[in-house]
Design brief:
alpha/beta; Glycerol-3-phosphate (1)-acyltransferase; 20 helices
Length: 631
């Protein structure tokens, strides 16, 4: 569609649409004056971590679809009939241990989606790159779109990428496609170098092609919707007074809403093969110590909590060798040489080109950015989530995974429709210890689960259960109503919650009544219900107990030398099971339906074990699972 001084695509594809930047851009499209002229938006995502900003979107124009950008055939199929693709999908890591995956996603993935766009004769492709592809500046040099890291005219003192030319990057990617990854050893700045490589490969791909490639270089983005906890992890450290040092460099900050507007203008008015720095105003180029202090002061005002606002500025002669040493002895360290080096850059970004060519003008102040960032951090209880995840992963890595690997082989079945549910309540057929161990072992991310309150009285166990965010269940209805409210709150924020369909000792052959609580919390939070079925081979269960601090027995049921089938069944959509004025009978009917699905799954597995007995008899009943689930 032709508009004043530009072109508005009617059918738009967005990769990485559930991430921080992608979700905010999608909201920008929805709220734009030209939205009525847009016919369709394909909102592509790669994981089940939905952005909380998008949880309540219900618009027929928007189609959420899973897309693996590493699958070229899938890229071709999913991008047919589009006018434009806006490519956000990328991996962010500064660790050398992630180099292979960074190259695979940032370079190969970008190549795949761009090749597919060319193949499908898509008119425009907007590449969301990064200011990390620009040169390094140590003296407040003003950087423009001409200061790309492969610019051979640049003064060497500003050059800090691992590649010296475009040709070198092209050659390295050729080696990658041949299976030769030896060049990765020379890369010193994993994120910066792979983003630079993806930019160069994209430019090479579109040479002599009709497609209009427009590249956006965002500044350091602040605001609401950081669902991958990149900036908010830093906010959490300030909030907990666990960060005392910073680096002396500068960054150019931009509010995510201003960035979204800049990307929109780039999509509509950007020129073929042109790059645009989209960041804040000149006064938003600020030192890291000031940024950290601003976060501390804002959190202090919002919470009335004592928060330290003075930070020690580390000199490079100390921090860089320390980062190298940490990375050498601990490859998974979050403190890396690349991250530290970037922290000494004192560059200032110019948005003059975007202002003159696109009519871009940031309207949010730095204080607006900090205000929205900190309020989002507090409203979403991100500090609590980070603490919960830390302790959950300790339980998984130190206890559950080791135990499951020694005692069982897991066979996992996963219905792909589970990934299409933004809010989920998983209903489990068993409420026993072995379910807990099994599911924690399988989990890529933490989930929330109500557990019998006596488990919290067990020494050490109770500490980790509490700090992982698990919820104690009591016999008194008043206390349990609090638990229900907490679970509903978690689900509304897009966090996964599990609940069992029955109480009592299912493993002992004495199952309790069918509970409607799972259906109630799912309905109240507008969540889809995912039936989660666990089947353990007959006669492989071991009953035992632990003594609590109150000197009471807490029963536990585990398995030994077992085949365990874990099945994530087709979800029951909220829009299908919900109706106005839901009654207790309605909720009971939902639970009966789920239980009937579990009985069918029991029969299916038992038939399979009987029909393929020789195969399953030969399976070693150890090792746990090689498949891990994003709940």
């Amino acid at each position: 569609m032709e508009i004043k001084n530009g072109y508005l695509p009617k059918k738009i594809g967005i990769t990485g649409s559930t991430g921080f930047l992608g979700a905010n851009f999608l909201l920008k499209l929805i709220n734009s004056e030209d939205y009525n002229s847009i016919q369709k938006i394909k909102s592509f995502y790669s994981s089940t971590r939905w952005n909380p900003l998008l949880l309540d979107i219900n618009d027929k124009k928007i189609e959420f679809e899973k897309l693996d950008i590493l699958n070229y055939e899938q890229c071709i199929e999913k991008t047919k009939d589009l006018d434009c693709v806006v490519h956000f999908a990328a991996m962010v890591s500064f660790s050398k241990k992630d180099l292979g995956q960074l190259w695979r996603i940032n370079v190969e993935g970008t190549e795949n989606i761009l090749r597919a766009a060319i193949e499908n004769k898509i008119k425009r492709f907007v590449l969301i790159s990064s200011i990390s592809i620009l040169n390094h500046a140590i003296d407040d040099k003003i950087l423009t779109e001409e200061d790309i890291g492969t610019n051979e005219q640049t003064n060497k003192k500003y050059h800090y990428h691992s590649f010296n030319s475009k040709d070198e990057i092209v050659q390295c990617h050729k080696l990658w496609k041949e299976g030769n990854k030896s060049f990765l050893k020379k890369i010193k700045l994993p994120y910066h170098d792979t983003k630079l490589a993806s930019y160069v490969i994209a430019k090479e791909l579109v040479k002599d092609k009709d497609i209009q490639l427009v590249t956006v270089l965002p500044g350091t983005v602040l605001g609401k919707g950081d669902n991958h906890y990149s900036i908010t992890k830093l906010v959490d450290k300030v909030y907990k007074n666990s960060l005392f040092v910073t680096l002396p460099g500068k960054a150019s900050y931009v509010h995510v809403e201003d960035l979204s507007n800049g990307i929109y203008l780039s999509m509509v008015k950007g020129k073929k093969d042109e790059d645009y720095i989209i960041s804040g105003n000149i006064e938003d180029n600020l030192p890291y110590p000031f940024f950290m202090k601003s976060i501390a002061k804002k959190l202090k005002r919002l919470t009335k909590k004592i928060i330290l606002s003075r930070f020690l500025v580390l000199p490079s002669f100390l921090s860089i060798p320390v980062a190298r040493f940490l990375e050498f002895i601990y490859p998974s360290s979050s403190i890396t040489e690349g991250m530290v080096k970037s922290g000494y850059s004192k560059s200032v970004l110019s948005i003059e080109k975007a202002e003159k060519t696109l009519g871009y003008k940031p309207v949010k102040s730095f204080d607006d950015m900090i205000d929205d960032l900190c309020k989002d951090f507090l409203e979403r209880e991100i500090s609590e989530y980070i603490k919960n995840k830390k302790h959950f992963m300790m339980i998984r890595n130190l206890v559950c995974s080791n135990w499951v690997k020694k005692n069982a082989k897991l066979i996992v079945n996963y219905d792909k429709d589970v990934e299409d549910s933004p809010r989920k309540v998983y209903l489990v057929n068993h409420p026993t210890t072995y379910d807990f161990f099994t599911l924690v072992h399988l989990a890529k991310n933490n989930f929330y689960l109500p557990i019998e309150h006596t488990a919290f009285d067990i020494p050490i166990v109770g500490y980790f259960l509490h700090n992982s965010g698990f919820l104690p269940v009591f016999k008194k209805k008043e206390k349990n109503s609090e638990i229900i409210n907490k679970m509903v709150d978690k689900i509304k924020k897009g966090l996964p919650v599990l609940n069992s369909i029955r109480s009592g000792g299912i493993a002992s052959g004495k199952p309790g009544r069918l509970r409607t609580g799972g259906a109630v919390i799912a309905d109240l939070s507008k969540a889809d219900i995912v039936p989660l079925h666990i089947y353990v081979e007959k006669d492989r269960l071991v009953k035992n107990f632990l003594i609590t601090l109150k000197l009471k027995k807490a029963p536990i049921v585990k398995f030994h030398n077992a085949l365990v089938f874990v099945s994530f069944l087709k979800p029951l959509k909220w829009s299908d099971y919900h109706k106005d004025n839901m009654t207790k009978e309605d909720y009971y009917n939902i639970m009966e339906k789920v239980e009937s699905l579990f009985k069918q799954q029991d029969e299916l597995i038992e038939r399979k074990l009987k029909e393929e007995k020789s195969y399953y008899d030969a399976v070693k009943r150890q090792g746990g699972s090689d498949i891990f689930i994003n709940f």
